[in-house]
Write a structure and sequence with these properties.
Elements (H helix, E strand, L loop, with lengths): L2 E4 L7 E2 L8 E7 L2 E7 H13 L1 E4 L5 H5 L10 E4 L4 E4 L2 E2 L1 H10 L4 H12 L9 E3 L3 E5 L3 H11 L5 E6 L2 E6 L4 H12 L4 E4 L6 H6 L2 E5 H6 L6 E4 L5 H10 L3
Parallel strand pairs: 1-5, 1-13, 13-14, 14-15
Antiparallel strand pairs: 2-4, 3-4, 6-7, 7-8, 9-10, 10-12, 11-12
């Protein structure tokens, strides 16, 4: 059985702020507003991929945020949310998976609490500090680069990753990287060939853990990713590039 781990935001789906052309369909509604879309071609390609592989969304989104997504191709049996710390099977959380995730992050609790204390004092913070699923820390800052620098100087970066995405700032245990989730799921499902696609630093370990993966060329070059990762050149909407490439191999 082939498994395709795919990031969601900016890999498969795109914010209403992103121009992906007129031929698109809404996949996420929040507070009555249409906020995320896929292209019609992506929708068609996803259906073809689903016929050949088990599609597993693998995202930093929380359960609540993930449940807002409807790709229109029917319910997917599995999803890895909270950066892989939570496994959903047919929409229900796998309690054994959660228990193991909490074991993996136990040694990082001190660093996560320290990160929360530092962010509580951050003068440029725009959102409350959240300890998501008791696994990682999240907030938003007006000056995220400065906040990230302070965190990296103060925390043990041998135990935790400090990452940013726009104004969003995350402190995530290294034991909760997406790559670890891919390895765990490979064993869980006794998967055959594993494919992956992502677009950001959050996805690097996931891409490296796959047998074949896809990333934007800038990410591949910036992180010196291995030969198993193919860089896309941005000649089309990224999701379309990803799915067309993956279909050549599954």
């Amino acid at each position: 059985m082939a498994v395709f781990h795919v990031d969601l935001d900016n890999t498969l789906i795109f914010s209403y702020k992103r121009d992906i052309g007129q031929e698109k369909r809404c996949v996420e509604v929040y507070q009555g507003r249409e906020i995320s879309f896929i292209t019609e071609k992506t929708y068609e390609l996803l259906q073809k991929v689903r016929e050949r592989a088990l599609i597993v969304p693998t995202t930093t989104r929380t359960q609540e945020q993930y449940r807002r997504i409807d790709l229109g191709i029917g319910d997917l049996p599995y999803a890895l949310v909270c950066n892989g710390g939570v496994l959903l099977e047919n929409g229900k959380e796998d309690e054994k998976w959660r228990a193991r995730s909490l074991e993996l992050v136990r040694d990082c609790q001190g660093q996560l609490r320290k990160a929360m204390d530092l962010l509580e004092k951050e003068p440029e913070r725009e959102l409350e500090v959240r300890f998501l699923e008791e696994m990682f820390v999240f907030t938003k800052c007006r000056n995220p680069a400065e906040a990230v620098d302070v965190l990296r100087e103060s925390l043990d970066t041998g135990l935790v990753d400090v990452l940013r995405n726009g104004q969003k700032v995350y402190v995530v245990p290294k034991s909760l990287r997406k790559g670890r989730a891919v390895e765990r799921f490979r064993q869980y499902k006794r998967a055959g060939q594993v494919f992956a696609a992502g677009d950001s630093a959050f996805d690097v370990t996931m891409l490296e853990a796959a047998d074949l993966a896809v990333a934007p060329q800038a990410l591949k070059s910036g992180f010196s990713l291995s030969a198993c990762v193919t860089g896309m050149l941005g000649k089309a909407v990224y999701s379309e590039e990803v799915l067309e490439y993956i279909l050549n191999f599954i």
